[in-house]
Amino acid sequence: MKLQFKHQPFQAEAAAAVCDVFNGQPMRTTTYRLDLGDMTNVQQSMDMTDTGFRNHPLVPELTHARILDNLHAVQRRGGLRPSDTLAGPGINLSIEMETGTGKTYTYVKTMYELNARYGWSKFIIVVPSVAIREGVYKSLQTTQEHFAGEYGKKIRFFIYSSDRLTEVDRFASDSAINVMIINMQAFNSSKNQRIIDKKLDTFRSRKPIDIIAKTNPILIIDEPQSVEGKQTKESLKKFNPLFTLRYSATHKEKYNMVYRLDAMDAYNQHLVKKIAALGVTLTGSTATNSYVYLEGIDLYKNKAPTARLGFEVKGASGTKTVVKKVSGGDDLFALSNGLEEYSDRYVILPDGIDGRDNSVTFLNGLKLYAGQIQGNEQMTALQRRVQIRETIRTHIRRERDLYPKGIKVLSLFFIDEVAKYRLYDGDNDDGRNGEYARMFEEEYENVVSELQREIGDEAYLSYLDKISAHETHQGYFSIDKKKGKKARFVESKVDRKTQTSDDADAYDLIMKDKERLLSLDEPVRFIFSHSALREGWDNPNVFQICTLKPQSESEIRSRQEIGRGLRLCVNQQGERMDESVLGSEVQELNKLTLVTDMAFGKFAEALQSGLAESLADRPKKVDVQLFLDKVLTNANGDTVKVTRDLAEAIYEDLIGNGYVKRGELTDKYYTDKASGTVQVAEEVKDCAASVVSILSTIYDSHSVELEDAHGNNVEAKVDPDKLKKKKFLALWEKINQKSFYTVSFDTKDLIQKAIDKLNGHLEVSRIFVKKEYGEQESKIQSKDQLLQGEGFKQRKADQEVADHSVLGSVRYDLVGKLVEESGLTRATVAAILAGMAPQKFAMYRLNPEEFILKAGKIINNEKATAIIQHIAYNKLDAVYDTDIFTAATLRGKLGQNAMPVDRSIYDYLIYDSDGERKFAGQLDINEKVALYVKLPKAFFISTPVGKYSPDWAIAFHEGTVKHVYFVAETKGSNDTMELRGVEEAKIECAKAHFAAISNSSITYDVVKDFDQLLNLVS
């Protein structure tokens, strides 16, 4: 398999941000005389030259002040806080990129762009470890053809080694783009520092650092927080860098930030996998050895819930652990064939299986939650076994969904000791399974043998049956290749400070096998690796990571191990499965499950704490300052810098629209943002996307919440028999047609519609003058009396209608104000006002500000409606297939966002709001309803304002209602005056679409509840 690379806008933006800081630098190539050293007794070869190529210095015109101006322009464009000065030493630019978003790809692209714009060609990538060094080298290899196709040239790259110093000569003398990869130990440790700083006979009496420094290289520091100690900072100066670029997801020192794509950005923009956690924890005291594990709860519509319980069973050859489905009243003593450890009332209470909190309660008082194990210190091995089993189960579930899409699923186990995976008895021994490998094979066979085989799964089950438990796992560890011995896994040499390994051979093996592991023809699907090998590499199709070792909260916060699986997956063609391919399903398909020995709540808290630390620089509150001096851009690329007046207008409008309360973004904002219906101040309506982008910089704790993998205890599945029902087929045939639209616009018609709406709906409240009189109390008793507002007492109050004199002499440009509100021409606005009924126009004098505000909103609504009223839909030959109902996996938690249903084509309904839950509940019990379905997002109507997916399709029994087939949109209010702008436009488009495709045999409308639906169909 060959991985495909896409041109991602955010990576191009990051490259442009760096390049734009140096606007004003000309395109130049500079040569110099290269020091060849002592040529005595050296036979000069044909390719030996004294011409060197170096990066041209910054021209004198590009002063620090001008660079700072360029930097400020870049920072304002990206919504970043402008730097006060050019923080040094030298010129440093920081780029923040979340793990899994293609950091290495981005800085390789940046090198190409700097070369194309300015001619710079010498780059040194400084990395903190061998692991990251090997990962960078592999990335340069795999992206070489991709970039060569885009830029028409290839990068020459190499890893610096004191044993291969001829590469340094080539680096200096070659005119192409040259990249040296060097880990900090190569110039920072006492031994290696002496080599790079020393005149070497093997290097013709020259110092390697002198030859490198003459090229005036651009330094790229990968993970600077791990590189730049005091000594390293001093050592880096010797490279004589033109400037330094610093790339990381977790900067400690953020010198001159030019681009930011942090964890919140990456998740919200669907650039990385969604994270779920599955905690497997021990509970109980050391006084008991009774092993009980609650794997999960299964809920049913027509019978009591059951639990999947792990316990020990006595057999002919000894005891073994099993997982069995149990019910209320079951006795583990009996089920275990009389094991004494379960004799103390291990009986499940009759109502002891609770799907609300996923728990099981026993007669002896023990209560377990999903993922918990009862046991003591001696039960750790059982805990690891359960972690392995849960990883396999999660893997199989995910694989079953993704195999038909051609996506290979991988799972990764991190362990802390090679012997737990492979044991050796002699020098020439091939090795045998260690404890964890043995557990894996046993549990894999158990999980696969218990798998329920369903119709439609034949291809996947055939694939599964061809792979044995032994061949489907493989270890990636350091390898001992001593002469006269068979190669074997050995413990990695671990750096005490970083707890990582610098074993290049182990990383080379992992990198080399990356593409092979992505192929479905390769049987290896489960990878075991040492926890010391947890950085510098990843695989996009890792969907489960299980850590079979104790984890500290600081390790979880660092997110190193998680980084191995954050990248979005690829299919068998090497195509990245991102939003451009999957749309809104991208993070349901791309989900990384972390199987940990920590309780979910504690693990989530530690992980989110780490994420929050990395987001510490984000603003926490929405205020005027958030927008001040930012640059807004409209669809045409025109920009406007936000003044204080404009910032205040934006902020006040957000409050007026219910988007901001006490400085925090409300649920209404997030709902409208998700549906693309955010309303902004009229002054910046053409720059709405920029306003939303600025609001996206606000820290949102909800965006980094983890999903509890134990939480979703039901999966909505389609009943294949219902898909074949005559009623469903009739409904589906009427709504599955696709369409296209055309639009026209009539200004005269808009003027008349606006006049009619203003005359019929405009109401302006009178201004009242409220008069209140109060007096200070005769005696002030204390400071507290004043603090509590009790030092004054109100004596009188009165209220009267404001007259002309009270309103004052303020003069308004009424036409101009409404032009600002509506974006229409003065002539159009004047015609609307001239046509208003006199009594309505007279309301202007009662309350001018409210008149302008309300009239502006009515005109804007009519403007949006005018477009929609002149839209025409026409049928296409293309139709939606019923596959859209089975393609997406729908999971939820009963009682929280899932409910059992009977009349739907699904067995469970996954709902998004309490309103949907109530609506579905009425659909499900009403005798007039034959069947219904909550339509998936993949079913949509194209409109001029974006895709629109209706909520429900409903079929009623013939003869019980007038309109048998109905498509419904459920809203809290169906008042068209409350469905503003884009939302109303989409609804009107939907009406036109269904009218065009069904010849009026389908009714579509917005309803607020089931009662209103019945009124409409009757």
Defining traits:
1018 residues; alpha/beta; seven-stranded parallel β-sheet; 38 helices; 35% helix
Topology:
Blueprint: H1 9-20, E1 30-33, E2 51-54, H2 64-77, E3 92-97, H3 103-118, E4 122-127, H4 130-151, E5 156-159, H5 166-173, E6 178-183, H6 185-188, H7 190-196, H8 208-213, E7 218-222, H9 230-237, E8 244-248, E9 257-261, H10 263-268, E10 274-279, E11 281-283, E12 292-298, E13 306-315, E14 318-326, H11 332-335, E15 348-354, E16 359-362, E17 367-369, E18 372-374, H12 380-402, E19 410-415, E20 422-423, E21 432-433, H13 435-449, H14 458-465, E22 473-476, E23 478-480, E24 488-490, H15 504-512, H16 514-517, E25 526-530, E26 542-547, H17 553-558, H18 579-582, H19 586-589, E27 591-596, H20 600-614, H21 624-627, E28 631-633, E29 639-641, H22 644-656, E30 660-661, E31 664-665, H23 667-675, H24 688-695, E32 707-708, E33 714-716, H25 720-723, H26 726-735, E34 737-743, H27 747-761, E35 768-776, H28 783-787, E36 792-801, H29 804-807, H30 814-822, H31 826-834, H32 838-841, H33 843-846, H34 848-869, E37 871-879, H35 884-887, E38 890-892, E39 898-900, E40 908-910, H36 914-925, E41 929-934, E42 941-943, E43 946-948, E44 952-956, ...
Parallel strand pairs: 3-8, 3-9, 4-6, 4-7, 5-6, 7-8, 10-27, 10-32, 11-18, 19-25, 19-26, 22-25, 26-27, 45-46
Antiparallel strand pairs: 1-2, 12-13, 12-18, 13-14, 15-16, 16-17, 20-21, 23-24, 28-29, 30-31, 33-38, 34-37, 35-36, 39-40, 41-44, 42-43, 44-45
Helix pairs in contact: 1-3, 3-4, 4-15, 12-13, 27-31, 27-34, 30-31, 30-34, 34-37
